[in-house]
Amino acid sequence: MIIFGSSNVGKVRKDNQDSYTFDIINDNFGYAVVCDGMGGPGGGKIASSAAVNSLAKHMSSANDGFTESEIRQIFDNAVACANTEIYNKALNDPSLTGMGTTMVCAVIINSIGYFINVGDSRAYLIRDGSIKRISHDHSAVQQLVDNGMLTETQARNHPNKNIITRALGVEQNVSFDFFKENILLNDMILLCSDGITNYIDDLEIPFEIIKRKDNIETIPQQLIELANSRGGADNSTVVIIKA
Fold it and tell me: What pLDDT, in 10s, does the model give residues 147-204?
């Protein structure tokens, strides 16, 4: 397993409110997380950093013998702790009112991938040149797509595409979606913030990755540069995992 990541402020914003981290524990066990913060002067970075740090702290107790239920418990604890920390900081500091963060996380153990997401940061599985979106956006536009009122193409250009319906730290409690996937040799997992997906179509992603399959370490920066070349109005973060 190999993992690479990169993050960029973009072409418009002054601060990067995205956060990410990853770790390879051994050949059979690794994880990565991407968070996209929002709200207040500096609030977004505080929120996204708290979420990333909480996940990393709770993952430190895991090993490659953990069961699905044990991994889910780690997710439960990490999300709950981060949500409480962010919520309380905003409650006690008026300048941080409304801050929160998305979260998307992948944990790979013995060829099984466990994923969670809150908000609209995404996880993808790339296999043999095809792509599958694993996560499910918590957004106003995604609800319209789910209800058959918009196509995916229309959703990408919708004026409300950046309105999310769920985030860590906004309310006292938050729930996440959980997904499980079998991971094959040479599969790739991509985690990214919406600074990428607002500018790069899902079907473009495997094309860009295949071009660089022998230089995996260049993929995050290349996708970021592509998003920036098309406007780069948001921070962008990419983590790539190769099984």
Answer: 877 777 777 777 777 789 999 999 999 999 999 999 999 999 999 999 999 999 999 9
Nearest partner of 43 among 100, 119, 91, 103, judged by Cα: 100
Eight-class DSSP state of 92? H
Q: What's the sign of the alpha-carbon dihedral 6, 202, 164, 31?
A: negative
Superfamily of chain region 2-242: PPM-type phosphatase domain (3.60.40.10)
CA 92, 38, 190 angle in degrees (round to 5)?
135
- Under 8 Å between Cβ of 29 and 45: no
Angle of helix 43-59 relative to helix 68-92, nearest 10 degrees, comes to: 150
Domain ranges of the chain: 2-242
Q: Is the pLDDT of residue 106 over 70?
A: yes
C-alpha–C-alpha distance, residues 156 and 131, integer Å: 17
Specify the residue for token string 């913060």: 37
This model's pTM is above 0.90: yes
Write out the two tokens for 49: 């950093």
Helix (H) or strand (E) holding 189: strand 188-192
> What is the residue type of 176?
F
State yes or no: pLDDT of 142 exceeds 90.
Answer: no
Whose structure tokens read 């993808």? 124
